[in-house]
Structure formats: structure tokens, C-alpha cells
Design a protein that fits this description.
The protein is mainly α and 426 residues long. It has helices at residues 16-39, 42-63, 69-87, 91-99, 114-128, 135-145, 151-158, 162-178, 189-210, 221-237, 242-255, 281-297, 304-317, 326-339, 343-357, 359-369, 378-389, 393-406, 410-424. The longest helix is centred in the N-terminal third of the chain and has 24 residues, at 16-39.
Length: 426
């Protein structure tokens, strides 16, 4: 992975301000990561990165866009970081620590060491997903610093007030500073635990874009794209971690269906009704490659994300819904349930079992899950589908109506009510 990109002004783009915005959006994670290594404070690092942006807004329209704009921004921010450290009371000790890392004079067009940048970016990933932060704070801070999203964009994506997101981000930075969270990649058992948190945050962001929990839109493609980009970056930074490749593969496969998941008016299209010719074959190929890397780097059995990616691959390789290898998928879900027990995994297994063995066998599984998924709208949705297939249409309609009452997404609620009317009509 290169340290800076793009290396030059976008082709045909004569507006320096547009070039600055484009480059900064791409490079800001690397800049914040590089500066955090100097100042050891994520919040201050982001402020210094913004200072470099202001400097670019002042100088580039006058002097022209530099040949290496990413390196220019990085160097400007790091110089400010060095100046800040020198002004602190512990000047001598801090200067000695960073003296070898940041020379006193660095040409503006000299690119930073790619290895250093990659190391710093990896440290930033683990910092934004530190367990001292709440899950909501991890998501907001990760999207802000690594996704390059503005506070307003994050707020719109999760349908919460902008002030709420701003508070989460500010508190997260303050918590990291007051708790003296080290800017480092942990090792041993702590690294394994923290990596799971990192992957979970990226997966959570993707899922919110893939099937929004609330609001008027079924999909939020921007969140899916940001999560997929983060997964790809992480795979480049940690090439020997099988679960990182497993997550990347899963998101590639899931993203490949995006164009077919909604109809002309944005209504949801269920998997069985999707036009598979609209599935993105390039993303499927990327998923196959990432899954092969996960398998090649695994020392034991596949992890939860690799298993989910294998399930997604089964869907990707099937020409039609009916031709899907449902027996294999049911077996894979059983393995996933043993590796990462969850009532939601069991619910998904029930769907596969219904296709492989019939709805009656699946209904037995679903009925054992009711106490664990009381407010989960997909439980009555799946149960309604099974009952409908068994010819118990009145019960099916009631289940779909219950699912609709629990659903918070308007598009999903409309779909469930439509299925209730279909069941009532027999």
C-alpha cells in the first residue's frame, strides 16, 4: 500500500479547492495516524491535520497544486506537530523521542516512508476501536478518523442528531487522552481480543448500510462503501490475519448484491426474487480471492467471518435461488453456531434448514428461539414465511403483522405488511 495517493491533481480538475477536498478526504486517515505518533493524542492530531488543510487552502490556489499533494499535507501537519511538542514544557525529552522520526527540515514534496504510514494507520485503527470506548463511540470515531466522514454525514447515516454524534466523538477523544491509551498495536491475547472489536465495528457499519435499522431507506450505500474500504485497508495492513481476509471476503460478496436488493422505487427485493444478472461479478471475484487468502493464512479451522464469507460464496455461485446448496449452507451455519453461538445465527440456520429439509423441521428450531429474540422483528418474519409455506396462512399473516409492528425501517415495514396481505389472500 502506498503512503500517499493520489500523487497528482485529478485529471482535468482545474479547481484547486476541489483538489484539496478530494486529496484531504483520501489522505486524512494517514495524516492523522502519522501525526498521532508524534503528539500521542488523537484529538490534537486531527486538529493539526485540519491546520494543514487550512494551509493548503491558503497556498494551493496561489501557488498551484503540488506534484505530491498527499505528501505536502502530511509534511505540513507533522511540522506543526513537531512545533507543538517543542513548545511543551517537556521539550527536551519529547524532542529526543521524535527527533529520529521527524527531521527538523523535510522538503514538502518528499513522501513519507510507506512502512511508517502503514504502521501508524494500523495503530489508529486499534486506537479508535479501543475497549474503553462504547460501541457507539467506536463507530463514530472510526468513521470520523478512518472513514473521512464529517460529523453531519455520520449523523445522517445513523439518523441521530448531529450534536449527539459530535458529543460522542469529543468524549471518545477525551477518554482516550485521559485514560492514556497507548498509540500502539497490542500483541498476544490482547491483540486477538482487540482485533475482534475492530472487525466488529467495521461489520456493524456495513450492516447498518446493508439493511438500515430505521428510517425511510432500506439501503445506505455510502456506509457499505466506507466499511468495505476499511476492510480492504485492514487486509492490506494485516495480511497474515485470516479473519481480516474473512471479513473482507464477506463484505465483497455482500456488496456484490447491492444493485439487485432494491426495486425501481427503492423497495426491498428479497434474495429469492433478485435478478442475479445484476450481481457485481467483479466484487464476487474479489470475494473469492479474499476468501482464498483467509483459508491460506488460517492455522486451524475457519473463524466466524470466514465461515460467513463461505456461506455468502455459496449464494454467489448459485445461478438461481433454487439451485443454492442449502444443505451445505445449513452445515456451515451449524459450524458457525458452534464457533460463535448466537440466536441470530440459529435463526439463519433455520432458514437454510427450511430450504434443505422443509419448513416443518425449521419451525421446530425457530420456536426454541422465541424467548431469546422477543423484540427481533426477523423472528416473526421467518416464522410467518415457514407457516405460509405450510399452508397455515392465517397464522402466517399474524406473524408478518407482528414483525411489521417491531420493524423500525419504513421500507421493511411496508414489505412485511405486504406479505401479511398476501398470506391473508391465501
Amino acid at each position: 500500500m502506498g503512503a500517499v495517493s493520489p500523487q497528482s491533481q485529478p485529471p482535468g480538475d482545474t479547481d484547486p479547492r476541489h483538489a484539496i477536498e478530494t486529496v484531504f478526504r483520501i489522505e486524512s486517515p494517514r495524516i492523522v495516524a502519522g501525526v498521532t505518533r508524534v503528539v500521542r493524542d488523537v484529538g490534537i492530531a486531527e486538529e493539526l491535520a485540519q491546520d494543514a488543510l487550512v494551509a493548503a487552502l491558503e497556498q494551493w490556489p496561489r501557488d498551484g497544486v503540488p506534484d505530491n499533494p498527499g505528501a505536502w499535507l502530511m509534511t505540513a501537519a507533522r511540522r506543526r506537530a513537531v512545533d507543538l511538542v517543542r513548545r511543551r514544557e517537556n521539550y527536551a525529552r519529547k524532542l529526543q523521542e521524535i527527533g529520529r522520526e521527524v527531521p527538523e527540515t523535510v522538503p514538502f514534496d518528499e513522501p513519507a516512508d510507506p512502512d511508517d504510514i502503514d504502521d501508524d494507520l494500523l495503530r489508529l485503527v486499534f486506537t479508535t476501536c479501543h475497549p474503553v470506548l462504547s460501541a457507539e463511540a467506536r463507530v463514530a470515531l472510526t468513521l470520523r478518523l478512518l472513514g473521512g466522514l464529517t460529523t453531519a454525514e455520520i449523523a445522517r447515516a445513523f439518523l441521530v442528531p448531529e450534536a449527539t454524534i459530535a458529543q460522542r466523538i469529543v468524549r471518545a477523544k477525551r477518554t482516550l487522552a485521559t485514560r492514556n491509551v497507548a498509540f500502539e498495536v497490542p500483541y498476544g491475547p490482547e491483540r486477538e481480543a482487540r482485533l475482534a472489536d475492530v472487525l466488529d465495528v467495521i461489520y456493524l457499519v456495513f450492516n447498518e448500510g446493508y439493511a438500515a435499522t430505521a428510517g425511510d431507506d432500506w439501503l445506505r450505500p455510502g456506509l457499505c462503501e466506507d466499511a468495505l474500504r476499511l476492510a480492504r485497508v485492514l487486509a492490506g495492513l494485516m495480511p497474515k490475519e485470516p479473519e481480516v481476509h474473512g471479513l473482507a471476503a464477506l463484505l465483497e460478496f455482500q456488496s456484490s448484491r447491492s444493485a439487485a436488493r432494491t426495486g425501481p422505487d427503492g423497495e426491498p427485493v428479497l434474495l429469492r426474487d433478485q435478478n442475479r444478472r445484476r450481481w457485481n461479478r467483479m466484487l464476487i471475484a474479489r470475494g473469492v480471492t479474499a476468501l482464498a487468502r483467509a483459508e491460506a493464512t488460517a492455522s486451524g479451522g475457519p473463524g466466524p467471518y470466514a465461515l460467513q464469507a463461505t456461506i455468502a460464496a455459496c449464494h454467489a455461485h448459485a445461478h438461481t435461488y433454487e439451485e443454492t446448496d442449502w444443505a451445505t449452507i445449513a452445515t456451515l451455519y451449524a459450524l458457525l453456531a458452534a464457533r460463535a453461538p448466537s440466536p441470530v445465527v440459529e435463526l439463519n440456520r433455520a432458514v437454510a434448514v427450511s430450504m434443505a429439509q422443509g419448513p416443518e423441521a425449521a419451525l421446530e428450531i425457530v420456536d426454541t428461539l422465541a424467548p431469546h429474540l422477543l423484540d427481533y422483528h426477523l423472528l416473526p418474519s421467518v416464522r410467518g414465511d415457514l407457516l405460509h409455506r405450510l399452508g397455515r396462512t392465517t397464522e402466517a399473516a399474524a406473524e408478518f403483522e407482528r414483525a411489521a409492528a417491531l420493524a423500525r425501517n419504513e421500507r421493511e415495514r411496508e414489505l412485511l405488511l405486504s406479505r401479511a396481505r398476501e398470506a391473508q389472500a391465501g
